[in-house]
Amino acid sequence: MDVRSDGIQVRSDKLPAPVVPRTRLQVWFVRVCSSILLWTFLVQLVAFGKLWHPLFVSNITNRISQVTGIPLSLNVEESIQSTPLLPARNYSSNGYLRVSCNGGLNQMRAAICDMVTVARLLNLTLVVPELDKTSFWADPSNFDDIFNVKHFIDSLRDEVRIVRRLPKKFNRKYGFMPFAMPPVSWSNEKYYLEQILPLIKKHRVLHFNKTDTRLANNGIPVYLQKLRCRVNFQALKFSPQIETLGYKLIRLLQEKGPFVVLHLRYEMDMLAFSGCTHGCTKEEADELKQMRYAFPWWREKEILSDQRRSQGLCPLTPEEAALTLQALGFNNETQIYIAAGEIYGSERRLATLREAFPMIVKKEALLSPEELKLFRNHSSQMAALDFMVSVASNTFIPTYDGNMARVVEGHRRYLGFKRTITLDRKKLVELVDMHQNGTLSWDEFAAAVRLAHEKRQGQPMQRRAIPDKPKEEDYFYANPHECFCEGMNCNDSLSHNNSSKVI
């Protein structure tokens, strides 16, 4: 009964709500939802921090990755796509820049970063780059087969206007003939402003038909160097089909524990190009020589293999790689992923390496033929899978300093100076020969190998510049140190004397 204000009692049909205790299912549901919200917030926080200061959160992402088994250092880049679009840069375009990249995947990747930077410098509209289809690899892949085009365009809209194709009025079938040329290699911004910009204004469309190493390593303004990094580390996301399979490879490897990626560049094209035949039969050496002569752009024909090897200009053989890994302290329980195409000599040449390291795998062994079917005969897409695994590995060891080795090294530096052992091949072949002829015992050999590589493990260091010899100086994409710190001067955060221990 209720009592009114005038004192009369009235019946009330409203009963107090019964108190229902929470069930275990409800408690579990609340906890799950809270955990999802917390992890979502944490991943977004990491993504934001990575975008603005990658080294600040590198330790956090490494710890999360160790706990969850998920390669957050790579997923961070994936999460950038969900960030709000920055306002488009408003500028009056001086014309269109069309580029045809040449070379393999990582040579083209670096070239794309350079061409975006040139377009920004000259206030140009960049056409989505064309990829090489006529080189040795003859990969028919287009840009959008390898990279996420929408993300590429959207993520750089505050710096450069990028279009998928030229306007129709600049099409050949309408009688327009674009001006094509290769820019001069290792050029700085003065060359592009004084010699290229006038050509653009005259012709409206300029076609760079070669793009490799067309921008200098050093002497470039810091804002342009940082833009090269932004394109490389943030804008060039792989296509969804590549990322899906790449993350699966990484997960399969991480489930079995830490793993080493050995970039074993002992492939037919590399051996023919370099003229390195150490360990090959006479028939194989003749086959490699014939291949070198078959390609007119491989200018150097007569090559003394032993001399080149002694100068450190040959990729390590599988046998030399096995000795080196053992000397560095890796044992027969080490999980090793071989990032490479078909090894020359196939399983016969891999026998020694497999005997020393039984846990050797390649993507072909981890993935089914059906999963790899779409990637067959597409060398750049296969290389993209190896690239993802290489960046995510605990240790990366290239046996030759080609484009992939250097670009992966730089990417790993950017992600917190992850361990990358760059081999001193000249010193190594000398030590290997001394050990095999009995001059050095195993203990002496192993100690010498470790000593030679104490300071070659991806530590922070200044990029070496040789003003008159740009081909001999350190490659920008292997050590883009301008991108590792805030402000205009990075020297305080770099040191020539840093070292890390060898396991």
UniProtKB/TrEMBL annotation:
Record's keyword terms, sorted: Carbohydrate metabolism, Fucose metabolism, Glycoprotein, Glycosyltransferase, Membrane, Signal-anchor, Transferase, Transmembrane, Transmembrane helix
Membrane topology qualifier: Single-pass type II membrane protein
Signal sequence range: none
Pfam families: O-FucT
A biological-process GO annotation: fucose metabolic process
MF annotations from Gene Ontology: calcium ion binding; glycosyltransferase activity
Main location: membrane
Regions that span the bilayer: 28-48
InterPro entries: EF-hand-dom_pair (IPR011992), EF_hand_dom (IPR002048), FucosylTrfase_pln (IPR024709), GDP-Fuc_O-FucTrfase (IPR019378)
Gene Ontology CC: one annotated term: chloroplast
Family, per entry: Belongs to the glycosyltransferase GT106 family.
Protein name (Swiss-Prot/TrEMBL): O-fucosyltransferase family protein
UniProt organism field: Cucumis melo
Source taxonomy: Eukaryota, Viridiplantae, Streptophyta, Embryophyta, Tracheophyta
